[in-house]
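WARN no homologs supplied; continuing
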Amino acid sequence: MKAKIYGIFLICEAAFMFAAAVVSLYFYNKCGDTDFTALLSSAMITGVIGFILLSSWRDKKRKNGSKVTERIVTLDYRDSFKLVVGTWLLFTVFGMLPFLMYGTFDNVTDAFFETMSGFTTTGSTLLVNVDGQPHGILLWRSMLQWLGGLGIIVLFLAILPAINSNSNKVMLFSAEATGLGVKKLFPKMKNTARILWTIYIVFTIACALCYWAGPMNLFDAVCHALTTIATGGFSTHQASIGYWNSKYLEYACVFFMLISGVNFSTFFFLFTGQFKQFWKNEETRWYFGIVTTLTVLFVVLFLVAPKINTILTNIDDYPHGWEATVRASLFHVVSMLTSSGFQSSCFNYSAWGGLFLVPTLLMMISGACAGSTSGGIKIIREILCLKAIRNEFRRVLHPNAVFTVKMSQEAVDLPTIWRVHVFILFYIVLFIVGVIVLCIDGCSLHESVFNAITSLSNMGPSVNAFGPDGTFFTLTPMAKWTMSILMLIGRLEIFTFIVVILTLFTKKR
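OK structure emitted
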């Protein structure tokens, strides 16, 4: 059964590669791009392997007297988690073929890092000359992030009936989706997945049109729309959004990053006229409140920092004027909080000074809303954790009282609270392990902290040489593989990956 599903996934991935190949053929005729052969060959290899896996599984039948019945193969919880992890690894392995066959990277380590960064919407890159890449390769990088944004499994639950039968759809969805669990909009999981992907596609088209209405050409608009709604951060230029130095583009990018950080399920209520149900979501209210508060904080920091530290040598990296200061603060906050990692015309937070690094690091850890395309711990977990801590202090003062944790005016059960605490604990443990490994490999403590967080939170940029104006090209192979693993664990929200690891060492009961 899993071979059949893997085969279908690879065939679909090959279809997206072929679409990128068609675009590369157009630009071959227009400007001489030479990546068509690499993309087409990769699509053929991926498609052939997919067909082999698909044909290797047959629905076996058995005779029961004169009656012929079909043997039904189901996926249990363990199989569901393994399928999700296996799919992401398989997609990454075949997704790096265009980079290797064209010559974007000359080794598997770099190609795997870039592809994993794409699929997990991390946005960390090894490319030192993005502008020099052909159009087909750039489109494929953007497609990687768009496919991984809402989730590969969620996409195929929405469009493929083969996945909808004989499988635990809720577990498949839950193993990949970001957040505490699955909230179905409809009784059938496939209908929920279809609504989510419809909203995702509509936002992508709207974003592309808004970008195209500005200084971007159609190709750049499509590529950036794919990565904006996925909150991924890959760009067609090394300078990212700042390449165009356009106020219009920066505000448009802020808007679409901002809405991409909201739980996509809540937009269903908004679009169906259930405005109270949309605003009832407590996490959404916290999200917009945090964005507003942090934007004001960064505006104040830009004003105060030069007066506190009179020996600042990086004052030229600061925005100049009220509008530019507000715009730079808003762009930075939204880009970091949603784990997009785009850069505006004033972007190098690594050069702004130490005052800016602590709130930036906290935003990278936090992330936006559950059920969005952003990374990080998620605001809902942080709220629940804070409320649980508050209740513990209240119990000290009132030992006989009974307190409950409520979210959006609904009581949250104790197992969910425990799961939040365990998630945060595992996040801290994995972060510490990542920092230790990166320090052993030669990174400074400062860089190791940010590199581990940017990978585990699927953020993108780090600091110093790995900051917004740099790349991760100089990392050692060990550091690249470490960060790649952290990216996958962070995108699958820790539990899915850990469950799969545990099943490898425990017997099935």
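Strands lie at 61-64, 67-70, 406-407, 410-411.
OK
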